């Protein structure tokens, strides 16, 4: 086998690898698009269903995520955390999570909406008042795995000053005694104070760029086929003539 033939086989082999890679990437993006489409359909379908009782959520939370939910109990204003890296209309802020105990004695976090950040990273933002006494919440069920791990600050209790460190926030969360598999996005309730100024919103229900990316990878693979095999065949045919 001549050196020219060896180089040609190597180039063809590399082209086949590139084509296989493009097809794999196209398939991966396509399946990501399908998964996202199914998730969007699930959110839309469940969000319009009648509210469930908290007992149903405790029995099988994943089966009821995004469903409306009603629960009665009391907030614990001494246990609050701020989820950072939350934006509203281009402004940086936090989601305020407050501990809540229902009438059955179970505890979970309630997302009471977005607040704008303070003047600096160490200054606590202005928080909405926590309703006292027994209240009935209208909200949306969310799974706890959607909460960030370690991406929050704990609000110091009985102290003046700013936010405590993230490490202490993690310890504070672990010591809170809340081991629920779900939390609730607060939307309203039987007290005007319960309605957040900026409630937690549903995620953007779009298919995203995945299907377009899948098509792009197919086009890239087609270009490799054209550039390596079709043009080469045309050149060889001309040489034979």
List the helices and strands and how they pair.
Elements: H1 3-47, E1 52-53, H2 54-59, E2 68-88, E3 91-102, E4 107-116, E5 135-143, E6 152-154, H3 166-174, E7 182-189, H4 210-240
Parallel strand pairs: 1-2, 4-7
Antiparallel strand pairs: 2-3, 2-5, 2-6, 3-4, 5-7
Helix pairs in contact: 1-4
Helix vs. strand class: alpha+beta
The gyration radius over C-alpha positions equals 27 Å
Give helix and strand order, one letter per element, not per position. Answer: HEHEEEEEHEH
The total count of helices amounts to 4
Based on DSSP secondary structure assignment, what is the total number of beta strands?
7
Report the uncertain regions: none
- What can be said about the biggest beta sheet? 5 strands, mixed, barrel
- Return the average pLDDT rounded to an integer: 81
Shape: elongated
The largest beta-sheet arranges its strands as 2-3-4-7-5
The fraction of residues in strands falls at 25-35%
Measured between the Cα atoms of the first and last residue, the distance is 23 Å
Helix content class: 25-40%
